[in-house]
Design goal:
This protein has helices at residues 37-78, 81-99, 109-127, and strands at 7-16, 27-36, 130-132, 145-152, 161-166, 169-171, 174-177, 179-185. The protein has a three-stranded antiparallel beta sheet. Helix 2 (81-99) runs antiparallel to helix 3 (109-127). The chain has three domains: 37-79; 80-128; 131-189, Head domain of nucleotide exchange factor GrpE (Nucleotide Exchange Factor Grpe, Chain A, domain 2, Roll). A hairpin with a 2-residue loop joins strand 6 (169-171) and strand 7. The protein is of the alpha+beta class and 204 residues long. The chain contains three helices and eight strands; from the N terminus they run E-E-H-H-H-E-E-E-E-E-E. The radius of gyration is 38 Å and the shape is elongated. Helices cover 39% and strands 25% of the residues. It is found in: Cytoplasm. Belongs to the GrpE family. It holds the Pfam family GrpE.
Length: 204
């Protein structure tokens, strides 16, 4: 017998209803169907392809949902950025005021009250995802710092931040305002610009 032309018997579900009890729920039974083996293999291959396609579609949907959730989360995080950016200059003014506070005013109860306001302001910004960028005594980081000057200082490594001119901030780890800083150098940098193409002989 040709093995390739042999038949294959498969069990398929079938639904039946008892005519005497038309209101009864249908009964699911199995019916054996005999088909050529070649047709069976073809159907089996198609079923595997459909299953693979369903698995890919499911994986694509899961990835799409994950990306959508991430984008939505990012939107929620950064949607308030404009409003928060308006609060940062106010906080900077508070910081600057305390940086120039005369020592004799440190014990003033009114100053103590304003200090608590500054601390609560900083706490609010942190809760909103805003963090100050560390500067003093940190290595210069061009992704977070903006150099606005140099200072000769041989006591610290070269390009160390020695002074903060204006604070910088991140929002959920993303730099929104770089810190403006002064960095250290080991020796004075020459500002002289060499002349190019100078001809010392007079032309006749």
């Amino acid at each position: 017998m040709d093995e390739g032309n042999s038949n294959k018997t498969i069990a398929t579900p079938a639904m039946s209803v008892n005519p005497a009890h038309e209101t009864d729920q249908p009964t699911i039974t199995e019916v054996n169907i005999t088909i050529p083996k070649t047709e069976y293999e073809k159907l089996k291959t198609q079923a595997a392809e459909y299953l693979d396609g369903w698995k890919r579609a499911k994986a694509d949907y899961i990835n799409f949902k994950k990306e959508t959730d991430e984008r939505q989360s990012e939107f929620v995080k950064f949607s308030a950025q404009t409003a928060l950016m308006g609060l940062i200059p106010i906080y900077d003014h508070l910081k600057a005021a305390f940086a120039h506070l005369p020592p004799e005013r440190n014990e003033d109860p009114w100053i103590d009250g304003v200090l608590k306001i500054k601390q609560e302001f900083a706490s609010y910004l942190r809760d909103a995802g805003i963090e100050e960028i560390p500067t003093l005594n940190k290595p210069f980081d061009p992704t977070k710092h903006e150099s606005v000057g140099i200072e000769i200082n041989k006591d610290v490594p070269i390009h160390t931040v020695v002074k903060e001119i204006k604070g910088g901030y991140t929002l959920y780890g993303k730099v929104i305002i770089p810190a403006r800083v002064v960095i250290s150098e080991q020796e004075e940098q020459s500002n002289a610009t060499p002349k190019v193409g100078t001809n010392e002989k007079s032309q006749t």
